[in-house]
């Protein structure tokens, strides 16, 4: 089995993918690692090392075929493999994420949303139904039995006060990956992975010179 790709490499590869998508729009057939490195203000050798992970090969003097390299990155990062997710908390953030069209391009399909506001329950958001949180287990089971897909990802955008109890419901519904936007350190079993998303942390990191 090949070694897992580091988080930093994944983030750089996604930036290369943005650049390649832009090149394709501009009908640029080739791009060199140097051009990518200059755009991102990083080392050319780093770009070549990352691209080597996709087993893509360039042509001397012209560089990489943009279409092929974009496809190789998509294969490497599994953009085409469909991954279904639930959103818990259909408020400002949860709604914005549910409407984010780009998720589908990266293989992330929002299967359903959950909330506890009676005014939101049974309404549709971007074509996806909002269920009461009490139906989480039932909807997860239905997805598995009827729609033949296991939803293992959840995006947590409830208020902080509801974060831990929601995480416990997610664990019971066999969710294995929680993308946690709440400002709460969740306590979950070891086999459940939590990614804590923190815009303020990123902002402070970025402005902390
Ligand atoms: N990670 C970040 O950088 C970042 C940025 C902004 C907001 N946040 C966090 O994201 C969360 C959502 O923020 P928002 O602005 O969308 O809030 P919001 O109030 O607009 O939305 C919260 C939603 O959760 C629902 N809700 C409340 N209690 C619930 C429960 N027990 N079960 C199910 N649903 C419940 C509410 O009805 C509402 O629809 C908050 O925890 C906030 O702190 C994080």
TrEMBL record:
Q: What does this protein do?
A: Modulates transcription in response to changes in cellular NADH/NAD(+) redox state.
* Any one GO CC term of the record: cytoplasm
Respond yes or no to whether keyword NAD is given for this record.
yes
Gene (UniProt): rex
Gene Ontology biological process: negative regulation of DNA-templated transcription; response to redox state
- Write one Gene Ontology MF term: DNA binding
| A Pfam short name | CoA_binding
- The entry's NAD(+)-binding residues are 89-94
Q: Which domain of life is it from?
A: Bacteria
Q: Does the keyword DNA-binding apply?
A: yes
> Could you tell me which residue ranges the CoA-binding domain spans?
78-185
User: What is the organism field in this record?
Assistant: Termititenax aidoneus
Q: What is this protein called?
A: Redox-sensing transcriptional repressor Rex
PANTHER family named among the record's database cross-references: REDOX-SENSING TRANSCRIPTIONAL REPRESSOR REX (PTHR35786), REDOX-SENSING TRANSCRIPTIONAL REPRESSOR REX 1 (PTHR35786:SF1)
| SUPFAM superfamilies (UniProt xref) | NAD(P)-binding Rossmann-fold domains, Winged helix' DNA-binding domain
Q: Which family does it belong to?
A: Belongs to the transcriptional regulatory Rex family.
Primary localization: cytoplasm
Q: Which UniProt keywords apply?
A: Cytoplasm, DNA-binding, NAD, Repressor, Transcription, Transcription regulation
Annotated NCBIfam families: PRK05472.2-3, PRK05472.2-4, PRK05472.2-5
Q: Where in the cell is it found?
A: Cytoplasm
Subunit structure, interactors included:
Homodimer.
Residues annotated to bind DNA: 15-54
Coiled-coil zones: none
């Amino acid at each position: 089995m090949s070694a897992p790709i580091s988080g930093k490499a994944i983030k750089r590869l996604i930036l290369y993918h943005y650049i390649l998508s832009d090149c394709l729009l501009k009908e640029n057939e080739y791009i060199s690692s140097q051009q990518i490195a200059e755009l991102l203000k990083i080392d050319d050798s780093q770009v070549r090392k990352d691209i080597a992970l996709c087993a893509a090969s360039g042509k001397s003097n012209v560089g990489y075929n943009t279409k092929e390299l974009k496809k190789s990155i998509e294969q490497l990062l599994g953009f085409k493999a469909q991954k279904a997710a639930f959103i818990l908390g259909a408020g400002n953030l949860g709604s914005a994420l549910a409407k984010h069209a780009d998720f589908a391009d990266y293989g992330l399909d929002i299967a359903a949303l959950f909330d506890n506001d009676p005014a939101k329950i049974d309404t549709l958001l971007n074509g996806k139904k909002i269920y009461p949180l009490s139906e989480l287990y039932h909807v997860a089971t239905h997805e598995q039995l009827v729609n033949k897909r296991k939803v293992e990802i959840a995006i947590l955008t409830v208020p902080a006060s509801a974060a831990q109890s929601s995480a416990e419901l997610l664990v019971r519904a066999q969710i294995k990956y929680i993308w946690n936007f709440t400002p709460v350190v969740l306590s979950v079993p070891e086999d459940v992975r939590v990614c804590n998303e923190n815009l303020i942390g990123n902002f402070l990191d970025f402005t902390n010179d």
